[in-house]
Amino acid sequence: MSKYDVAVIGSGPGGYVAAIRCAQLGLKTAIIEKYSVLGGTCLNVGCIPSKALLDSSHHYEDALKHFEEHGIEIPGDIKLNFKKMIDRKASVVEQTTKGIAFLMDKNKIDVYTGTGAFKDATHIDISGEKNQTIEAKNTIIATGSKPASLPFIKLDKDRIITSTEALSLKEIPKHLIVIGGGVIGLELGQVYRRLGAEVSVVEFMDRIIPTMDGAQSKELMKVMKKQGVKFYVSHKVSAVSKKGKKITVTATDKNGKEVSFEGDYCLVSVGRKPFTDGLKAENAGVKITERGMIDVNDHLQTNIKNIYAIGDVVRGAMLAHKASEEGTLVAEIIAGQKPHIDYNLIPGVVYTWPEVASVGKTEEQLKEAKVEYKSGQFPMRALGRSRASGDTDGFVKILSDKNTDEVLGVHMVGARVADLIAEAVVAMEYRASAEDIARMSHAHPTYAEAVKEAALSATEDRALHV
Ligand SMILES: Cc1cc2nc3c(=O)[nH]c(=O)nc-3n(C[C@H](O)[C@H](O)[C@H](O)COP(=O)(O)OP(=O)(O)OC[C@H]3O[C@@H](n4cnc5c(N)ncnc54)[C@H](O)[C@@H]3O)c2cc1C
């Protein structure tokens, strides 16, 4: 029987990063993945394929709507080859997952294909093409999550679908009804809107992206409405039915009135749930919470001391980079180091266009916590860079402590803010004040100038270009 210092169950961005870091630290490491390709949700049916389709559909929309204003004329009609778009996405996924296989090889990590199930706290049965058992001093559970649904919805995965199917459709929906105005619903809704579908987003809360700053919800909804997406907030979906190709979604609006939507596809994007099926955690004595998550302490250690859990299967934001940070943390803890994650500084991003990005506390959270703060906001339309590219929607908002000026939260909507948020994370990691950012030189012309200007605005209201 093969023996390891660490066995990692699951090869998503939590698991594979944990495995690499363990190997770097000299630990003999195995990774177990039930699918024949590595990379988990993120690489196969999450972050990477959704971004590939967002980029492709963005090019298509630019060609249709914006080339002309740049003086680019295309003789004849612009045609969409949807199959090719989906095939390109598949090849991006393939290249990326192959990259992970290469990294496992390079780091001398043994890869086992099959479902990993605890036999006891130090033995894992792997059932795949070959059934075998390995022994591990430590195990890291990184089994991720699956799409959640509502109890009355029967996902047929044909027309009533989750994000997984939405990434590989064979045709463009005529009318896509999206249940849930969170990140995944909005990203995929925007993809199909750009490709010509009518898109209706039905959201239970009174705003979209409800965990982000209220100003971002408002701005993104305004811009997406201009792009033709229809929004129905404060609508509680009560039924979804299918007759032939027709899908009917029934909901109750905020006045208690029943409304219905008819479409040919319904994307159910109401969140994700932790996944532990087949893991047989009980054989090792590992505690799972009522909500199906693996229970962990601050060191991501389960109630069994040599078993850890990371990523979507534990509490916290379901984000790839959060899973990876946790993977690194656990590997270093096993190797005897004392690392730390500041969860307040894990950024959140929506890859619609304009993009939406946040780090730290929202204005709503600061109000609730009764923290005295200052707010500085700068509109993208006032930037030369935004006018040059034509991306004038959005803003950067910086919230800083009223007394100390320490940056408490940064919230952005605009072109490339998914990349810009890194500046805010660095600033907050080093506990910068708004004035510190305001006094740093930002290259001109860049979208990053909006960060400086928002910081100037938070610091005695002295933005220069408004
Ligand atoms: C459409 C979509 C878009 C997304 N976009 C983004 C984004 O842009 N940015 C971002 O940060 N996050 C994004 N996410 C979320 C991100 O994909 C997850 O947060 C991330 O994948 C979680 O990583 P993980 O390692 O915890 O689990 P996962 O990536 O879910 O990986 C878990 C792996 O464990 C395997 N497994 C499960 N049980 C067993 C078992 N018993 N034995 C062996 N293997 C097992 C599974 O097959 C899977 O491969 C997106 C998600 C979706 C669905």
Automatic annotation (TrEMBL):
Keyword annotations: Disulfide bond, FAD, Flavoprotein, NAD, Oxidoreductase, Redox-active center
Residue ranges constituting the FAD/NAD(P)-binding domain according to the UniProt record: 4-327
Reported cofactor(s): FAD
The EC number(s) this enzyme carries: 1.8.1.4
Catalysed conversion reaction: N(6)-[(R)-dihydrolipoyl]-L-lysyl-[protein] + NAD(+) = N(6)-[(R)-lipoyl]-L-lysyl-[protein] + NADH + H(+)
Limits of the Pyridine nucleotide-disulphide oxidoreductase dimerisation domain: 346-455
The record's free-text note on cofactor binding: Binds 1 FAD per subunit.
InterPro entries per UniProt: Class-I_Pyr_Nuc-Dis_Oxidored, FAD/NAD-bd_sf, FAD/NAD-binding_dom, FAD/NAD-linked_Rdtase_dimer_sf, Lipoamide_DH, Pyr_nuc-diS_OxRdtase, Pyr_nucl-diS_OxRdtase_dimer, Pyr_OxRdtase_I_AS
Enzyme class: oxidoreductase
A Pfam family recorded for this sequence: Pyr_redox_2
A single GO molecular function term of this UniProt record: dihydrolipoyl dehydrogenase (NADH) activity
Note: The active site is a redox-active disulfide bond.
Similarity comment: Belongs to the class-I pyridine nucleotide-disulfide oxidoreductase family.
PANTHER family per UniProt: DIHYDROLIPOYL DEHYDROGENASE, MITOCHONDRIAL, DISULFIDE OXIDOREDUCTASE
Protein name: Dihydrolipoyl dehydrogenase
